[in-house]
Amino acid sequence: MTTLTQLASWQALALHSNTIAHMRELFQNQPTRFEDMSTKACGLLLDYSKNRASKETLSLLFSLAKESKLEDKIKAMFAGDAINNTEQRAVLHTALRAPKSKQIYVDGVDIVAEVHQTLDKMEGFVRSVTQGQWKGYTGKTITDVVSIGIGGSFLGPKIVSQALRPYWTGDINCHFVANVDASSITEKLKTLDPQTTLFVMSSKSFGTQETLTNTLSAKDWFLAQGATQADVAKHFVAVSSNVAKATAFGIDANNIFPMWDWVGGRYSLWSAIGLPIALLVGMDNFRQLLAGAHEMDNHFFEAPLETNMPVIMGMFSLWYGNFFNAQSHVVLTYDHYLRGLPAYFQQLDMESNGKSVTLNGTDVDYSTGPVIWGGEGTNGQHAYHQLLHQGTALIPADFIMPLNSHNPLGQHHVQLASNCFGQTQALMQGRTYDEALAELNGSSLSDSEKKLIAQHKVMPGNKPSNTLLMDKLTPATLGALIALYEHRTFVQGAIWEINSFDQWGVELGKQLGNDVLDRLVAEHDAVALDSSSNALINIFRHAKI
Q1: pTM score > 0.90 for this model?
Q2: Ordered alpha helix ranges (H), 97-151
């Protein structure tokens, strides 16, 4: 047994998990359940009353958090301790949204000052592009930006830009490229004019395979249209730590924005990686995004565990994964602009907590890192919600919805809300056999047919969900929402005693991929690998026309 599973609170939770009543009963016996099990912070309301939890459950979960020294671990992260122990790095994405008055030191350097220098540099860049001061090589103003990255350098900016569509200024069109599949960038370039297109390349090393390949193809396209190598500086900028490689490519050193080792890619949208966001919504709105995240940072750092929104959500996820064998968690966004969030939270959680050893290298003997998935309401109700209601797997759900729409139209938003709230109610209460049979009493079916169909209409209920509401989707509430899930992810990893901030599985895939690439372009067939890999490589080599 690991140290975690030997904790008194862990063992108490294991016993307690077998005693929880059905949520129907919990609501009947606790008339003030919503008031007791909801909280507000940073423009968000969290209703966690539709969970398999009593007051005793909550007490035990918070006891586990305390026994695991969660509060000390939170303080260590904010203080800049090297909690990423395998890479000996601090974890300070929170510093990216800290106010200028704050001081945080890493290796003797005030990183908050560096962050705000970069923000000011971003502001000048955004102003010059959006106000037409930045000119292309033929003297035309920039109309389109192509953001080239992969992973967090791509997903965060794309999804936040999508979410903030109502705040776009209209000065710039932005396009996102990540996939190394040539069709992706080719289809983008078909619609663009090289004289008015600016490329933002995001890669800490300026050598990430997919990103560099796409950037080189973009450069080839640019030069093939009549531009020269000297013109590259007017159409390419970079977010990178490798100034030498970026300048050798042709990028002006003044147009290279920094990245820092104390920020992981999936936590980096708040930095210069967020340039595409700022170009679309303006720096004022980008700063509001940071301010909302900072407000959630303060809440996470200061609020008691019992009213701490990220802690509550993180502990419930652990509750279901470790004591009810829940293998996945679904995120359901009842807002069209937030439709990309499940994919963002998927990377955030699964790349962070998909680990099988503790910080000290011991194999875990408990589940870590559920599969995160989801989609846009109400579309999912006509597809995978069937599995949520009547499938055999327990799948906790998060429902996210703004109370007011950016596009009020007839009864659309009230119908959207009715679906959102109706789904959480149905998941909680279900339908008994007697209730299903009663619904069929007025039908022309025979008694035997009624009994058969009633069996198929039974839903067990007792399916847990959280509901997150905001008054309206704004840059600030979006910032708070994303920071909430960042910290929720940290809470789980801290309790599990794993490193949520490295990704060696990703590194192995890159390493082996490069080895396979060498064999794919070799002059002879592959023979040194396993029989399957050899065969696949050789089939590909001989299929090339």
Answers
A1: yes
A2: 111-130
